[in-house]
Specification:
Layout (H helix, E strand, L loop, with lengths): L2 E8 L1 H17 L4 E6 L3 H8 L5 E3 L3 H7 L3 E11 H4 L7 E5 L6 H6 L2 E4 L7 H11 L2
Parallel strand pairs: 1-2, 1-5, 2-3, 4-5, 4-6
Amino acid sequence: MTIQVLRLSHRIHRDIRLSTHVALTSRAFGASKIYYSGQHDSSLETSIKKLNFPIEYIENPKKLIKESKSTIVHLTIKGEDYKKIIPKLKGNLLIIVGGEKVPTEYYKLADYNISVTKYPHSEVAALAVILEKLK
């Protein structure tokens, strides 16, 4: 199983630490690559590449999702309970982690919209839980 992560809507002055933590968590829990959309951030890329972890800016994340041959998993508090979905996840995965409010189209593009809890929480926490459960 190959796991890649897509971080949506990175904002340089607001999300630098959070996007860095999404990338670090992805790497620590076994993902093979991270993509990000929103504002292009060469500083973020430099920091992550120093750790020998692939990072790629994507101008059109919807195109990436549509062309992906992986199962698309969107992490959201509005999703199904992850405990019901994790056993169904086989093969390669592209895990979507939101930034600002995620447009409805991403929910429709995902094969699964899953939630670790219905309470507000960090996307880093959700990603860590899901990646750990996939081991």
